[in-house]
Fold each of these.
Amino acid sequence: MSLRLAGILGRAIAGACNILNPEVIVVAGDFLPAGELFVQPLREAFSRHANSPRRIGNGSYDRNC
């Protein structure tokens, strides 16, 4: 379930970025304790659907995102 949710969220964020064109996307929320189990599939789905590359960081201010 959470992998599917990560994919849906990644695609939705990509759609918003295609319209708004931000430089960085910061993701925060209750799902972040799942760490890379959630964030990596989100990044992969985002990369497939975004028109241009962006960085996705987490709410803990990850300088290496």
Amino acid sequence: MEKAVPTNGGSFTLRLAVDIAQKAYALERQYHTPLFFYDAEQIMAAATDFFTVFSLLAKQSQVVRIKSDGQQADIVLQLMSEYMEERLQREDASEDTYKLAQDIQTLTQQLVLASLPSDVSLEEQVRQLKEELELSYRKVEFLEKKSRQMKEASWHTGRLKSESQEQKMLRSLKAGKAFERFIGVNQTVLELLALAAKAAKVQSTVLLCGASGTGKELIAEGIHQASPRAQGPLVKINCAAIPENLLESELFGHEKGSFSGAIKRKLGKFELAHCGTIFLDEIGEMELNMQAKLLRVLQNSQFERVGGEETIEVDVRIIAATNQNMERLVKENRFRADLYYRLNVIPIYLPSLTDRKQDIPLLLDHFMKKFSQDLGKKILGIKNEAMEALVNYDWPGNTRELRNIVERMVALTDNSYIGLEDIPACCMAERMKPPDDSIIKAGELFPLAEYEKQIIRAALEKHGSYTAAGKVLGITHKTVAAKAHKYGIDGLDRAE
């Protein structure tokens, strides 16, 4: 028998591995039933071997499976899974090293004594136990050192575990699987997701507002999937991508011979979306004459195909999206006020990436894992200085731009960790603010070459390589190398 235990991104420490092994040992003794763990890669470990268990859990699999074949396996599996789920929820990455060593010593004694045959002398048991303990302490030192090095060298999502009570409350408002693809823990994001979840339960029209690349289409898909219309079609149309003379035919369809090239009847998007949802993207780009026809559909759920006389009635839920200021368009008479009020029943505003900086590390982590798998790369993480540079970038293209940049970095890097040298120059230009010219005005002026020398030296000393220095200064690594050689500062170690 086996049972799956979701990890929920828990922090897997040596403390946790020891506690799990102790619990497994107690259950095995009580019920005379062996316990084993294995992950998605089918790597199995005895539940009482805490070093192997720690290595298994440290892979941070989404699910760890427990297996037992004894007569009371169902009881043992239930007790073990409940204990693990409870521990994973309250696990703290900080460890009391002294108490941990004591627990390891106690557990090791139990396991060694349990494994020794009864005819072994006490002196031999003591000798073997000392050897086991010495080996255990060496393993502890090695694993703790390796864990510290990995955490210091890279950013990891566990750093976002310290949330305020308000954030935890808002997180609980986030809808289920329908909105899982929209990643974020920012308060504004969680509030808009909660609003979208409420909007999904009713049939009212929704207007999604936000800059390009903020995820309006993802929210529209989530609303549809969480709604009673989820079994129906979700039809999408970009109003800005279709010429005005063809948009009416795309929306409402046309009859055969209604215009040149209409060789057969075509169903429009509204007919195709019957009993489902239609997503009208870039609604602010629609021409005024088309707005009047769309208003009729919103009011009466009726329309005629181009060149047709039959009135068609449809049951469609409308979600519209725009990256423009709709109220300003209404004031400028570029968008009908009556249509705007019809669309703006439930407005949802999506923040730009600049307004939710704390979500950038989560998005970077998500896209790095995705593209590492898609491109067959083994990217383990991102260095702290690279993470800082990407978080400080303004991301005018929002999440869409971030996704493209991550794909480029993963595709082109030869390293296990993304560093400054892997970041495109466009994302590095804003890291350094121009110096205050009052400093130069107030002091003595020097030849331009002297300033250039000091800048090149400072960049190399801070960033450690020609490539990284060039990224910050906005020049190529060859130019940095040439300048360093020119000013006699190329004697520094530059490992590329």
Amino acid sequence: MGHVKERLAGFKAPRHVGFVDEIPRLANGKLDYSSLNQTAASMFGGDDVAEAAH
């Protein structure tokens, strides 16, 4: 993360970085943002992560 923070403005640097085995997708192949937000909230502990995307 230090590499990113050195090169980007503070508001552009991600607060959290997480890795998942598979990106959730809808039946039509598009990203399932709702499921992804829930996964992020459970990984990083809080509803603020899910709300930040809205």
Amino acid sequence: MPIVYKLSDTLEELDITKNKLATEGKFRVATLHELEKGKSKSISFETLERILVTINKITLIEGKRKVVLNDVIDFYEDDTIPSVPLSTYLKTDNESSASPDIVVDDKDNSTNKNAPQA
């Protein structure tokens, strides 16, 4: 399946429970479980937006990083789906990384891949 739901990994990383997210965002916990298990055949833009807005409200209050769409859902060609979590390839400051091409800048949460330096 080329669509990969990464919400559970993101929530775990940010130490946010599905129950807290559902309560704050005013939607069913079952919706999050369906996404997590791949049982949801579709997800509306409205639901995606509410998930992102709610997580970012929580992370703003808790002083954590901002979440973007690729933290919740991603697309891979069938033969390129990573067999390990994407976070394995990301590094911040002094952490080691499996891929030197991908670096997360904690200051603005952007991901640069061999970006030219200004």
